[in-house]
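Hello,

Our lab assistant flagged a job as stuck in the queue for most of the afternoon. It eventually completed. Since we weren't sure the result was trustworthy after the delay, we are filing this so someone can double-check. Below is the sequence as submitted and the structure that was eventually returned. Let us know if re-running is recommended.
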Amino acid sequence: MSFSTPKLPAVGIVANLSEEDRDTLSSYGTFHLAQVGTVVIEQDQSLGKLFFTLSGLMHARRVDGGNDILLGKIEAGEWVGEIDLFDPSNAVCSVIAVEQTQYWVINRQDLEEFLNNYNSAGIVLMIGLANTLSKRIRGMTEKLAEQADINKFRDMTLEFE
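-- returned structure --
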């Protein structure tokens, strides 16, 4: 992808947008290049922005009780920041570039302007975001259920000791 004419590629939640709609959406945000080690999102800070990874790799990490936990990898075509975009509060984790990473970012005000000006494309975009959120919630629910089963088994084992 050339930074002389940056455009959102037809991947992830924008894959179903027309080229014209992707180009228009591109103009509502900004393109960035993060070097290795750059903190794109800092835990406990509020940004109210949505980030789309164009290339490279970032890690979502959370420090909790002194433990540094890898929550997931953000690869090309994936979004991050949607929780803080829709529920402005403190970020639940940090997002750090582990490879040189190209990304696009849009703030809530500019996203709302795009949605208001381009209703059909906005609907497609919001359905994609809802799909992403749904998959992430499902994944976290499965992890919590697995952890509950592990804890239940551990508690049963302790009862027999």
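-- support follow-up --
The delay was a queue issue, not a problem with the job. The result is valid. The beta strands are 30-34, 39-41, 49-55, 57-64, 67-75, 79-80, 94-97, 101-107. The longest helix spans residues 119-159.
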